[in-house]
Amino acid sequence: MVPVTPPPAAPPAAAPAAPSRNLTYRLLDTIGRDIVTGVYETTSFPTEAQLAQTHGVSRSVTREAVKMLTAKGLLSARPRQGTVVRPAETWNLFDPDVLRWLLERTFSVDLLRQFSQLRIAIEPEAAALAARFGDSRDLHRIDAGLARMIAADQAADDPLDADIAFHIAILQASRNPFYGQFREVVATALRTSIRFTNRIKGRTASIADHAAVRDAIVARDADAARAAMQHLIGDVLALIEQGDGDDIAPTA
């Protein structure tokens, strides 16, 4: 009797391809920047079909990007009017993408000043809370951020990343989730702010001023931590005022 060989099993059906996240975010970035830079100030916002055709992507990718821009406050869908660009005052400035597009649009000293005014209302109190509630891991992250700044001063680390790591560590050490939510906004805007102020003063951030904040937090001295952070950001505000009106823009 000749054995019968069963036919090979059919390969499993391929799952339907989901829209590429990279394509979605690339389209999100392109359209978001166009909105913020005023491309649609004098023309109607395109339909999803028009966007898909213009950018060579699927309707599902376009639809997802439009939904994300709507969530950021840049777009809204109106009955019988389609999708429209919302006024700038409704945009979510706490969204890192929106803030990045604004900072990239046309360099604005006013925007940096306003951001620093927000920082001086938030970060000193975050430093005071870190002195009261930060645990050993929080203090280690703050100390590591300062160590990175010292290394960056010797060209052994990136000065922007090190400075940002220090400030974010303090926000997280506050143990207040509302302060922690500012970390992405702070990181995004500091990249422009630090470049701007460093070009004015001709050097990187003051290690001594940052160390004073760290030392006060480690000493559990909330008042000193608050005052040290107020001093640090106050200097930034003074530098921004000093550079106001000058033809100084941050380098990439």
Walk me through what this model shows.
The protein is mostly helical and 252 residues long. The N and C termini lie far apart (78 Å). The chain folds into two domains: 21-90, Arc Repressor Mutant, subunit A (Orthogonal Bundle), CATH 1.10.10.10; 107-243, Up-down Bundle (Four Helix Bundle (Hemerythrin (Met), subunit A)), CATH 1.20.120. The chain contains eleven helices and two strands; from the N terminus they run αααββαααααααα. The model is unreliable at 13-19 and 247-252 (pLDDT under 50).
Count the DSSP helices. 11
Q: Assign the CATH architecture of the largest domain.
A: Up-down Bundle
Distance between the termini: 78 Å
Compute the CA-based radius of gyration: 24 Å
Structural class by secondary-structure content: mainly alpha
Summed over residues and divided by their number, the pLDDT gives a mean of 85
Taken together, the total number of domains comes to 2
Largest sheet: 2 strands, antiparallel
Portion in beta strands? under 5%
Q: Give the full name of the CATH homologous superfamily of the largest domain.
A: GntR ligand-binding domain-like
The ordered string of helix (H) and strand (E) elements is: HHHEEHHHHHHHH
Per CATH, the class of the largest domain reads Mainly Alpha
Give the fraction of residues assigned to helices. 55-70%
Which terms would index this structure?
two-stranded antiparallel ribbon; single chain; elongated; Arc Repressor Mutant, subunit A; Four Helix Bundle (Hemerythrin (Met), subunit A); mainly alpha; 2 domains; 252 residues
